[in-house]
Amino acid sequence: MPSIYEITKVIHITTALLSISGFILRGVWMLNSSPLLLNRWVRVVPHIIDTILLVAAIILVILTAQYPGPTSWINIKIIALIAYILLGTIALKRGKTKPVRVTAWVLAILIFIYMFEVALSKTVQPW
User: Fold this and answer.
1) What Rg value do the Cα atoms of the chain yield, rounded?
2) Using CB atoms within 10 A of its CB, is residue 18 exposed (0-12), middle (13-18) or buried (19+)?
3) 96-125 per-position pLDDT tens digit
4) Contacts of 5 (CB under 8 A, 6+ apart)
5) Which of 84, 112, 117, 120 is the most exposed, having the fewest neighbouring CB atoms within 10 Å of its CB?
6) What's the CA gap between 95 and 102, in Å, rounded?
7) pLDDT at 15
8) Quick one: which of 63, 55, 77, 80 has its CA closest to 122?
9) Residue 126: pLDDT band by 50, 70, 90 thresholds?
10) How many H-runs (helices) and E-runs (strands) does the chain carry?
11) What span, in angstroms and rounded, lies between the C-alpha atoms of 18 and 24?
12) How many Å apart are CA 37 and CA 126, to the nearest integer?
């Protein structure tokens, strides 16, 4: 029988993949000026997924007793997450022009990739 840690880790990884997939899809819709972005579920579902993702992350940190403390890779993931959220809001909501939105979208995706690599390597410099 899987442990709470294993179940939570699967939930965390699954919601992370759902989150970035949805973000990329919404970015493509933004690039194409798609009316699909106006659907209510497009504004609601990402928040549900991201809330589950964040709760799973907090549970994992508590279960592994890695924060607060000297685990710098978790600290950098938190900082990167804040940058990802800020860039995501610029990309999908607050960017005044399409070039600003596209730049924020690409940077947010790159930050997500960095967070993924940090999680796999458990180091702040995964490359």
Assistant:
1) 16
2) middle
3) 999 999 999 999 999 999 999 999 998 888
4) 60, 63, 64
5) 120
6) 9
7) 97
8) 77
9) confident
10) 4, 0
11) 10
12) 34
CB 124 within 8 A of CB 73: yes
Instruction: Tell me which amino acid residue 56 is.
Output: A
What's this model's pTM, rounded to 2 decimal places? 0.90
- Give the per-residue pLDDT at 73: 86
Q: What pLDDT, in 10s, does the model give residues 49-85?
A: 999 999 999 999 899 887 666 678 888 988 999 999 9
Contact 19, 53 (CB under 8 A): yes
Token reading at 114: 């960095």
Give the span between the Cα atoms of 101 and 71, in whole angstroms. 33
Compute the residue count for the chain: 127
- Supply 101's token pair: 């939105």
Q: Which two tokens stand for residue 79?
A: 């900082």
